[in-house]
Amino acid sequence: IKEKTEDLKRERQLAEDLLHQMLPKSVAKQLRKCQKVEAENYDQVTIFFSDIVGFTSIAASCTPLQVVEMLNNLYVCFDSRIESYDVYKVETIGDAYMVVSGLPERKGTKHADEIAKMSLDLVAAVRQVVIPHMPMGRLQLRAGIHTGPCVAGVVGYKMPRYCLFGDTVNTASRMESTSLPQKIHISSATYDALLTDDAYEIELRGEIEVKGKGKMKTYWLLGNKNYSVQN
After folding, report:
1. Distance (Å, whole) CA 146 – CA 174
2. Are residues 100 and 179 in the same domain?
3. How confident is the model over 164-210, as pLDDT tens digits?
4. CA 58, 64, 66, 70 torsion-angle sign
5. Which residue in 45, 83, 111, 169 has its CB near the most CB atoms, within 10 A?
6. How far is the C-alpha of 203 from the C-alpha of 28, rounded, in Å?
7. What is the pLDDT of residues 32-72, one digit of tens each?
């Protein structure tokens, strides 16, 4: 009986670990208790989007299995890196990678700092990701960050997903789509949030036309004066 009990505990722990990789721990706890997870408003979070430069042409030059292997290598690398930061990976869609800080547990004013450090790490790390079918090739990341309010909640019953909604999500996505290879494009709101520490090297990009937003003043995040990315 003791052995069976131990086996049951191990299986339960494995199931919980898997659930915690799909949903935030606090949300998973409520779902296990069959409680309804209410959508929440967050006054300030920081959202990161990235994608692979030229992914469509890279994918066209290889088999579907090679695409899967390449993306798996990339996301295993990223997933292991982001564990060092106080962030939550929302989802991956194809080559797009979305991460947030500031929810579901509110982080005060540190969410922009966590995402900024993480983004510098990922942009450096992507150079080390091996493309199995292109051993001499290297991937390039295009990244964007925005800070602002959003709503978060669980959507669906079968395979429920923890989703973010609001204009902050759209603007963060626009920062990524208007970025450049191996660059981290940040909005004025994120720039203002990072100024409090005076720890970042930031360069003014200027005013650019952003679809659905008009002209926006944006910046390039170049580095952190007190933090160097390690290989």
Report:
1. 9
2. yes
3. 999 999 999 999 999 999 999 999 999 999 988 788 999 999 899 88
4. positive
5. 45
6. 40
7. 666 667 778 999 999 999 999 988 888 888 888 988 888 89
Record the tokens describing residue 196, joined without a space.
């409090």
Q: Position 210: which residue type?
A: V
DSSP class of residue 67 equals: H
Residue 61 CB neighbours (<10 A) = 12
Q: Is 152 left (phi over 0), alpha (psi -120 to 50) or beta?
A: beta
Cβ atoms within 10 Å of 121's Cβ, excluding its own: 19
Specify the number of domains making up the chain: 2
First to last CA, the chain: 48
Q: Domain range spanning residue 77?
A: 38-224
pTM of the predicted structure, to 2 decimals = 0.85
149 contacts 84 by C-beta, under 8 angstroms = no
Distance of CA 35 to the CA centre of its chain: 27
Same domain (yes/no): 29, 82: no
Q: Are residues 14 and 44 in the same domain?
A: no
